[in-house]
Write a structure and sequence with these properties.
By secondary structure, the protein is of the alpha+beta class. The chain has a single domain, classed as Roll (Thiol Ester Dehydrase, Chain A), CATH 3.10.129. The protein is built from 4 helices and 6 strands, in the order H-H-H-E-E-H-E-E-E-E. A 6-stranded antiparallel β-sheet has the order 1-2-4-5-6-3. Keywords: Hydrolase.
Length: 149
Amino acid sequence: MNNLDEKSFHQTYYEEIVKKLKEDPYASFLGIQLTELKEGYAQAELTIQDHMLNVHGTAHGAVIFALADYVFAAASNSYGKTAVGISTTTSFMNPGISGSTLKATAVEQKRNRKLAWYQIHVESNKNLLATMEGIVYRKSSLFIDAEEA
């Protein structure tokens, strides 16, 4: 990383970080939209379509997980430093319904030089559908092109 601290790096390279996160091919394929990004924090939305349903007619757990995983990745990579997931635990509480918009929020709980911990909630109409806890390994490399400050 250059001479900026992580918060300053986020602020200086915010547009580049957001652009890179919005280029995620799988998230784009699913229709996930990044709606907010701060240091260690991300929100995204996804509208459930009929092809995302399971045999019970509700949102497939993999789709809900994908949305949670996306905000986990966005929040943990929000500093411009490459972070890769090493562990997640997901609990599903309520079904997602076709046509409904799901909103996922990831909040950093603790971060150090090599690891960071996140709490993620997925909601629809203020109804909690799932929670996820995740841990990332923080590499020393950047995932965006940045000039030395």
